[in-house]
Amino acid sequence: MSVQHHHPSELPVELDYGLFAKELAQAQYHIGLLQGSQKTLHSSIYLIGPLVAREAAVSSKIEGTQSTSTDVYLYAAGGKPAYSDTPVVSNYRTAMYEAIHAISSRKKITKHLINSLHATLLDGVRHSGRLGKFRDGDVWIAKKEGDPIEKALYIPPEAIHVSSYIENLIKYIDTENSEINLVKAGVVHYQFEAVHPYEDGNGRIGRLLIPLILFYKGELSLPIVYSSGYFEERPDQYRKALREVDKTGRYELWIKFFLEAISEQAKETLNLIDEITNLNLKLKRKYESSKSPYILRLIDLLFESPVISPPEIMKRLTIPSRMTASRLVNELVTDNVLMLIDEKGPSGTKLYAFVGLIKIIN
Predict the structure, then answer these.
(1) N or C end of the chain, less CB within 10 A?
(2) What is the sign, positive or negative, of the torsion defined by CA atoms of 155, 160, 162, 164?
(3) Topology of the domain comprising 17-273
(4) CA 209 – CA 281 distance, rounded (Å)
């Protein structure tokens, strides 16, 4: 039985903006609000960490990987997370930071960067194919994992075409034209999924590219609008919208769905920013009259590392005495700001969780 590979059109493609004008206007409005909120923040460090950790957990959940934001932080701090899949989720977080650093350093989105992110994503975890290398054989999407290619619902282009498709995609991202960047991000996500350049990890890289493109093109000062939550709650609609492009070559239904996702997730991110910012201000006010020269700096540190040990606090804040660090921790435990979650962290140290932030991001 012969199989039929799908060959998506090269980019750019012709789009009827009138068919998603309402959704585009709403998405632009909410992205504008999100960008404005970032400009009012005195520190982006404590904001990006929780949002990236949350996205890492949700994006990986779409692939059937189970973990939580708390587990990601616990794993990063050297503790033992409840879920064995946590290293996979932690890798997604690391890949996002790698991309943020690259783009902040004025590097372009290139084939090399995408391959590097793929290698980071799958480093040290079970996977198919080669790290940071495009596939050299057929892949397919079927109803059940393990179904033969003859039962495939969708077969991406042959491996020989992958490199040229990705080169075209990168050129499209970089080209300055009349196409609106929000729409461009949606087109790129479809194209990446359609080409399926790797044997494994395509979905997570494809979703990671969405905020990175908006960041790279200057729509956002930080890549903090994530579509995974919307897609994860509507898997059938998500797949149907993508498959509509496969069948008809028309992108409008997909772009409409994508822009709805951006609007909803931007609103959710705005709410999270408000909660995180209010928590930071509340704690700063509570401890502003403290005699300790370290307490306010510790509060900012907790937003960056919400699971932490006393030795790590000593190191990060250059506190000369372990007793001083322990006294700070004990004060925050008494005030229900910190909670002991692991008595056997790295080298037998205790690990504490920042209760307020963990509640927000979980």
Answers:
(1) N
(2) negative
(3) Fic-like fold (1.10.3290)
(4) 32
Tens digit of pLDDT for each residue in 270-310? Answer: 999 899 989 999 999 999 999 899 999 999 999 999 999 99
For the domain bounded by 290-361, which CATH number is listed? 1.10.10.10
Please write the tens of the pLDDT for every residue from 320-342.
999 999 999 999 999 999 999 97
- 42 phi, psi to nearest 5 deg: -80, -20
CA 127 to chain centroid, in Å, comes to 19
CB distance 56 to 245 below 8 Å: no
The edge-to-edge listing of strands for the beta sheet with 338-342 is 307-308, 351-354, 338-342
Residues in the chain with pLDDT values less than 50: none
Helix (H, G, I), strand (E, B), or coil: what is residue 19?
helix
Written as six digits, the tokens of 277 are 């910012």
* pLDDT at residue 50, rounded to an integer: 87
Please tell me the distance from the alpha carbon of residue 189 to that of residue 237, in angstroms, as a whole number.
Answer: 15
DSSP state of 217: T
Nearest in space to 354 (alpha carbons), one of 40, 311, 362, 346: 362
What torsion, rounded to 10 degrees, do the Cα atoms 10, 12, 14, 17 define? 140
> Cβ contacts of residue 161 below 8 Å, gap of 6+?
7, 195
- Which of 254, 252, 195 lies closest to 227, judged by CA? 254
Q: CB under 8 Å, gap of 24 or more: what pairs does 124-127 form?
A: 124/87, 124/91, 125/87, 125/88, 125/91, 127/199, 127/200, 127/201
The domain limits of the chain are: 17-273, 290-361
Nearest by Cα to 63 from 150, 7, 152, 128:
128
